[in-house]
Specification:
With about 190 residues, this protein is α+β, with helices and mostly antiparallel strands. It has nine helices and four strands. Strands 1-2-4-3 form a four-stranded antiparallel β-sheet.
C-alpha cells in the first residue's frame, strides 16, 4: 500500500484572515508564524477548516478502506468501484483483502480528529499504517498540522480505552505528550 499527498489546498493567510474576521479585525498582511499555526490547530478554531489535504492510497485493502470511509465529517472519499459492470469481476467473489484505490480531501480539523482514532494502538495495524502514511506525507509541507495529528491518548493526556495498550504508561508516551504540548503557551 502506498500513501501519497496530492496537494494542500487553502493557505495559512486565508486561515488567518478568517480568524481575524471572527474577532472583528481587518485582514492582515503578515504571514502567520509557525507558533500561531500550531496554536490555532491545537485550539481547533473553525478557520483551520479552510486548509485541506488531498491524498490518495493505492493498493489499499478494501477492509482498511472501509475503516477510513467511516469518517464522514470534514472529509470526502472517492473509492475505486468494485461494481461488476465496471470491472468485469464478480464483486460477490472478491475478498475483503482485495485492493482498491482510495482518495480523500480532508480539512485540517478532520485530519486531527481522524488521527485521534486511527493512530491509536487499538486501531488495526493495517489501518494505523495507512493513516500514518498520509500523516507522514504532510510532515514536510505542513509540519504544524503533522504535529497536531496524534493518537487520542496524547490528545487527551491519558487513555480512556476499555482495553488499553498501556502506551500511556511509557516513557515514549511522556515524550510524545511533551512534544505535542510544545509551543502551546508561546
Amino acid at each position: 500500500m502506498k500513501a501519497e499527498l496530492l496537494k494542500v489546498k487553502g493557505t495559512w493567510r486565508e486561515v488567518a484572515d478568517s480568524a481575524r474576521t471572527t474577532i472583528n479585525r481587518e485582514a492582515g498582511v503578515k504571514e502567520p508564524s509557525s507558533s500561531w499555526k500550531r496554536r490555532i490547530l491545537l485550539a481547533e478554531h473553525s478557520p483551520i477548516r479552510q486548509l485541506f489535504v488531498s491524498a490518495k492510497w493505492t493498493d489499499l485493502k478494501y477492509w482498511v478502506s472501509v475503516h477510513i470511509v467511516r469518517h464522514k465529517f470534514g472529509i470526502e472519499h472517492w473509492v475505486r468501484t468494485q461494481r461488476t459492470d465496471r470491472t468485469g469481476l464478480d464483486r460477490n467473489e472478491l475478498p475483503q483483502g482485495n485492493e482498491v484505490e482510495h482518495e480523500i480531501l480532508a480539512n485540517a480539523q478532520a485530519m486531527i480528529t481522524i488521527s485521534r482514532k486511527r493512530l491509536c494502538n487499538q486501531a488495526s495495524a493495517e489501518t494505523r499504517e495507512a493513516w500514518t502514511g498520509i500523516v507522514d506525507s504532510i510532515k514536510e509541507m505542513e509540519p504544524e498540522l503533522y504535529a497536531a495529528c496524534v493518537p487520542d491518548c496524547v490528545y487527551r493526556g491519558w487513555c480512556y480505552e476499555f482495553k488499553s495498550c498501556g502506551y500511556h504508561k511509557t516513557e515514549g508516551f511522556q515524550k510524545a505528550l511533551q512534544a505535542y504540548r510544545e509551543g502551546i503557551n508561546e
